[in-house]
Write a structure and sequence with these properties.
It contains five helices and ten strands; from the N terminus they run E-H-H-E-E-E-E-E-E-H-E-E-E-H-H. It has about 230 residues and is of the alpha/beta class. It has two domains: about 70 residues; about 140 residues, no CATH class. The strands form two sheets. The chain has a six-stranded mixed beta sheet with strand order 1-2-3-4-8-10. It has a four-stranded mixed beta sheet with strand order 7-6-5-9, with no helix packed on it. Strand 2 and strand 3 form a beta hairpin. The longest helix is centred in the first third of the chain and has 41 residues.
């Protein structure tokens, strides 16, 4: 089963809730410091307060990360609406085929095929090759001394998910329906991934669906896929 994609309004509302959570946390913590400083001079109480602040900071960072993901999902929905208003979008679809399974973040059902999509929110410059195990992230591309980080190649992961989904559709519908893997970088400034069309900047998402090699899928088949995903 999958979840029908949330509307832009719903995503925006959820993002607002995340910021309200952050405001609530520090709306309690900061006045708490003033109260403790005024009422108590006990170092033990200060130590406990510092420990609580540490966990408040960790929670704040977690909430900010979730908020950034919601923002990226919102922008993805905006782009998809402009590309194809008839596209059907599903999220969090779990494929189970025997002992093999995959949880797919986004499934796009379009007249040009089915896409398994993963949204990446890493900023900076992203570089790598399709079959490499790890890719690189340069946090500040314009700064030659910028920190470079290594992370697992997301294309390999989404390729696996697309393979599982294609097998699942073939088993259920007895049809060989094209399923394409795609990683969308929503926050990256630059993408240096040669010889692959399976990774794209969010701003260039529309180009993926203008590929002349794509063939239209019959409406009847799309309806079957949609019914299966619901």
């Amino acid at each position: 089963m999958s979840i029908p994609a949330r509307s832009k309004k719903d995503l925006f509302r959820k993002q607002q809730i995340e910021w309200i959570k952050i405001g609530a946390i520090w709306g309690i913590m900061l006045p708490g410091l003033a109260y403790i400083d005024f009422m108590y001079k006990n170092p033990i109480i200060y130590t406990v307060y510092i420990a609580v602040c540490y966990f408040a900071i960790k929670l704040t960072l977690k909430i900010r990360g979730h908020s950034a993901k919601l923002s990226a999902d919102y922008k993805l929905m905006q782009q998809l609406e402009g590309i194809d208003s008839n596209m059907r979008v599903f999220s969090q679809f779990k494929v189970e085929a025997g002992k093999k399974e995959a949880k797919i973040e986004w499934v796009l059902v379009s007249k040009l095929g089915i896409w398994c999509v993963k949204v990446n929110i890493m900023p900076g410059k992203i570089s790598g090759k399709e079959k490499e195990k790890n890719w690189c992230q340069v946090l500040k591309p314009k700064n030659p001394k910028s920190k470079t980080l290594s992370f697992p190649n997301p294309v390999l992961e989404v390729q696996y998910e697309a393979k599982r989904l294609k097998e699942y559709l073939r088993h259920k519908l007895k049809e060989n329906i094209p399923v394409f893997p795609l990683v969308v970088f929503a926050k990256a400034e630059e993408l240096d991934v040669p010889f692959t069309s399976e990774a794209v900047l969010l701003a260039n998402l529309g180009k993926v669906f203008k590929n002349k090699d794509l063939r239209e899928v019959p409406t009847e088949t799309l309806d079957k896929v949609t019914s299966l995903l619901c």
